């Protein structure tokens, strides 16, 4: 790897750099499916087991953090994360803030914590969770890792929808009920779409740098204009799915999640008005808030209506 470009003078150091490298704005993608999936178990399981909900949360959170560190490491050693190449969150390796080996170990340690929490659930629930867990770990690493990272070929959004939407939501229900329920499957759709919106806005911001680095994300393939339309469509579809959950499964209080559509107005307008580069960084945070508020209200509504 070539010597990294010096980081911006405002770049954090020490534990603040590691915290920034974990990309906190993306963490609602880990929390929301566990909240919604656990709520979907309320009317099926005799008792929602608290430690299983916590363990599922640890799995999802550590998978997200591990994937973020793995992304930082893999992009960094490929030279696609230098300060002059892209804008956005702190890059530990690309900016030379931490050595590649340390970031790789942080990713593997995060995955290990996720695996240990998943193993505890496997012992309590069943060996089928091993298959799901192994697939999730592999997906987290090979997003940008390995010789043919699928994130470089436009499949990142599909990964997010499947693993941080369907798998995480349905899995969070399954650890309590030990069955795949129709409610959890349908509820996973808005959850997955909201998580996907986070990646779409991230990749929209990075189109110039990714294009220069040869990283063929879905945003690069679609181009700027169509990626903006995709972001809007994904958010709209998420809120269209909410009434399906509320009405189709007799969970009227779940309609409270539509409040999130009010919060979505600001980031959608910023995207449609043409915000680009660093101006999209706040939009990422706003999208995360939309996801967290919508997910929390959806989960509360499902549980209250059970």
Short description:
The protein has twelve helices and no strands. It has 306 residues and is mainly α.
Keywords:
12 helices, 306 residues, 70% helix, mainly alpha, single chain, disordered N terminus
Question: Layout of helices and strands, plus pairs?
Answer:
Elements lengths: L13 H8 L6 H13 L9 H29 L21 H26 L2 H15 L13 H22 L4 H24 L1 H7 L4 H5 L1 H25 L10 H14 L8 H25 L1
Helix pairs in contact: 2-3, 2-6, 2-7, 2-12, 3-4, 3-5, 3-6, 4-5, 6-7, 7-10, 7-12, 10-11, 11-12
Helix content: 55-70%
Q: Could you tell me how far the N terminus lies from the C terminus, measured between alpha carbons in angstroms?
A: 55 Å
Shape: globular
Mean pLDDT: 90
Main β-sheet: number of strands, strand sense, barrel status?
A: none
Structural class by SSE content: mainly alpha
Helix/strand order = HHHHHHHHHHHH
Poorly predicted regions: 1-5
Task: Count helical runs.
Answer: 12
Written account of the structure:
This protein has 306 residues and is an all-alpha fold. The chain has one domain. Helices cover 70% and strands 0% of the residues. The protein is built from 12 helices and no strands. The chain has helices at residues 14-21, 28-40, 50-78, 100-125, 128-142, 156-177, 182-205, 207-213, 218-222, 224-248, 259-272, 281-305. The chain is globular and about 50 Å long. The model is unreliable at 1-5 (pLDDT under 50).
């Amino acid at each position: 790897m070539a010597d990294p470009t010096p980081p911006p003078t405002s770049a954090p150091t020490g534990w603040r750099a590691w915290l920034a490298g974990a990309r906190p704005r993306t963490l609602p993608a880990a929390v929301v499916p566990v909240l919604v999936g656990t709520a979907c178990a309320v009317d099926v399981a005799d008792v929602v087991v608290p430690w299983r909900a916590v363990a599922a949360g640890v799995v999802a959170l550590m998978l997200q953090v591990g994937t973020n560190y793995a992304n930082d490491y893999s992009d960094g050693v490929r030279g696609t994360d230098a300060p002059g190449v892209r804008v956005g969150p702190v890059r530990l390796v690309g900016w030379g803030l931490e050595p590649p080996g340390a970031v790789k170990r942080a990713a593997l340690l995060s995955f290990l914590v996720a695996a240990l929490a998943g193993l505890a659930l496997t012992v309590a629930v069943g060996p089928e969770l091993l298959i799901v867990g192994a697939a999730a770990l592999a997906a987290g690493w090979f997003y940008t890792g390995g010789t043919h990272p699928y994130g470089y070929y436009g499949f990142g959004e599909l990964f997010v929808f499947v693993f941080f939407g369907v798998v995480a939501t349905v899995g969070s229900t399954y650890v309590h009920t030990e069955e795949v329920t129709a409610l959890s499957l349908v509820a996973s759709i808005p959850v997955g779409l909201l998580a996907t919106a986070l990646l779409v806005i991230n990749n929209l911001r990075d189109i110039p740098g990714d294009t220069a680095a040869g990283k063929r994300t879905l945003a690069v393939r679609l181009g700027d204009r169509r990626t903006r339309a995709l972001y809007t469509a994904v958010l709209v579809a998420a809120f269209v799915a909410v009434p399906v959950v509320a009405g189709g499964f007799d969970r009227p209080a779940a309609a409270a999640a539509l409040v999130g559509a009010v919060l979505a107005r600001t980031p959608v307008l910023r995207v449609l008005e043409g915000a680009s580069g660093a101006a999209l960084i706040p939009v990422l945070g706003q999208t995360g808030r939309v996801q967290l508020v919508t997910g929390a209200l959806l989960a509360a509504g499902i549980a209250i209506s059970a």
